[in-house]
Amino acid sequence: MKKPILIIALLFVVLGQTVRAQDASVFISPLTACPGADVAVRVEAANLFDVGAITLFIAYDTSAVEYVALNNVHPQLGGLLYNHLLAPQPMVAVSWASVASVNIAAGKLFDIQYHYKNGQGAFTFLPDCEISTTGLVVLEVDYSGGTIQPSIVILNQPSDQLVYEGEPAGFTVGSSSAVVYQWQRSTDQGTTFFDVGETANFSGANTQTLEIATANISMSGNLFRCRLTGAGCTVYSREALLEVQAITVQTFQFVAGWNTFSLAVQPTSLDVGDVFGDLANQLIFLSDGQEIYYPAGGINTLSQIDPSAGYFLKSSESAALDVTGVPTEPATIPIAAGWNLLPVLTLCDVEIGTLPANVLSKTEAIVEIAGGGVYWPSKNIASLTLLQSTKMYRLKANEDFEWVFPTCNP
């Protein structure tokens, strides 16, 4: 009697070792697809022996794919049941059982058909998956989920561009799998796009980088994207915006001695040395009343120009200065009761008599700096009738108010 018992015990040990030694796996291999196409996601297996029951829960990413159907079931898995569930998360639930054992050394269990939207998504086996033998022994199975991504992967998207009128611009897209590139342009805010060709102003229309030799104002607001083709697929990059800022030249005429200085443009560089570079041989002193730029003395506490401020400037001789920049909106200047500095932050001269009544009623006097012009109505003095662009004045107010320059159409 002991011999049969020993044989049976040895048989269980051998069978147990066989179950553990199967090295069973169920997996989904990574795949690529064309956005907008239907794809078959293969659920495969290896080293499944003496299988009597299968339960699988396969979750998926709804941002990348949309479930369609389950099909192409392995011939040995007749009667397999499946269901598409949305809660507690989107998944496909699969169930199969049989008293007859099934052996699958390697092969596909079934396909899950999805509609591929775009982007990268994952297919994940949830923890409740279980495969057991006909003897109800649960197999140790390695469950490995898979991923899906576009056949053409865009590694770097084109970035928005902000340039000054007359400057070059460009857009770049990065991809390791595209074969053909075609840049496109939209002049109607993205409603329609048309292919960009090679011209004197556009180059690289069929490469990863589109170069624009000279950006002009008419291009501001245009959108650019790239159509990438390869592996039987076509994808589009993001739409990148081109903004072109108009530039203008504000001309200053300085006399020998003291002058005032105020800007109506935003220079391409605010560095004091850059703004006054053409005046390097004439400029002696510059100050906003607190900070100082005194190049001969090696003093510079005024590192950058403030376009909303006014300045005192001393020149060794008469000189002209051109400042290139973007026209600025006339700033609102807070005026306090008493004496103030009033920079003229507009490209147009301003006739004092045309100022709004609520401004004139609060303005007691305006005095020209480094000049003899005075506007003082209560004293019947009106030798100053025009506030000149590029200059600064002293203003005396009888109460606090905000000064706003009128619209300028130079």
Secondary-structure topology with pairs:
Elements: H1 2-21, E1 24-27, E2 31-33, E3 38-60, E4 65-71, E5 81-85, E6 91-116, E7 121-125, E8 130-133, E9 141-144, E10 146-150, E11 154-156, E12 161-164, E13 169-172, E14 174-175, E15 180-186, E16 194-195, E17 202-203, E18 209-212, E19 223-230, E20 233-236, E21 240-245, E22 248-254, E23 257-262, E24 265-267, H2 272-275, E25 283-287, E26 292-294, E27 299-300, E28 310-315, E29 319-327, E30 332-335, E31 338-343, E32 350-351, H3 357-360, E33 363-368, E34 374-376, E35 381-382, E36 386-387, E37 392-397, E38 401-404
Parallel strand pairs: 1-9, 2-10, 12-21
Antiparallel strand pairs: 1-3, 3-6, 3-7, 3-8, 4-6, 5-6, 7-10, 11-14, 13-18, 15-16, 15-19, 17-18, 19-20, 19-21, 22-29, 23-28, 24-29, 25-26, 25-28, 26-27, 30-38, 31-37, 32-36, 33-34, 33-37, 34-35
- Indicate the radius of gyration in whole angstroms: 39 Å
CATH classification, class level of the largest domain: Mainly Beta
- Count structural domains: 4
Q: Give start-end ranges of low-pLDDT stretches.
A: 1-21
Estimate percent helicity.
under 10%
What number is the mean pLDDT?
91
Main beta-sheet strand count, sense and barrel state: 10 strands, mixed
Structural class, by secondary structure, is mainly beta
How far do the termini sit from each other?
A: 116 Å
CATH architecture of the largest domain: Sandwich
Could you please describe the fold and organization of this structure?
The chain has about 400 residues and is mostly beta strands. The protein folds into 4 domains: about 20-150, Immunoglobulin-like (Sandwich); about 155-245, Immunoglobulin-like; about 250-325, no CATH class; about 330-405, no CATH class. The strands form 9 sheets. Strands 1, 2, 3, 4, 5, 6, 7, 8, 9 and 10 form a 10-stranded mixed sheet that branches. Strands 12, 15, 16, 19, 20 and 21 form a 6-stranded mixed sheet that branches. A 5-stranded antiparallel sheet has the order 23-28-25-26-27, with no helix packed on it. Strand 34 and strand 35 (about 380) form a beta hairpin. The protein is elongated. Residues about 1-20 have low confidence and may be disordered.
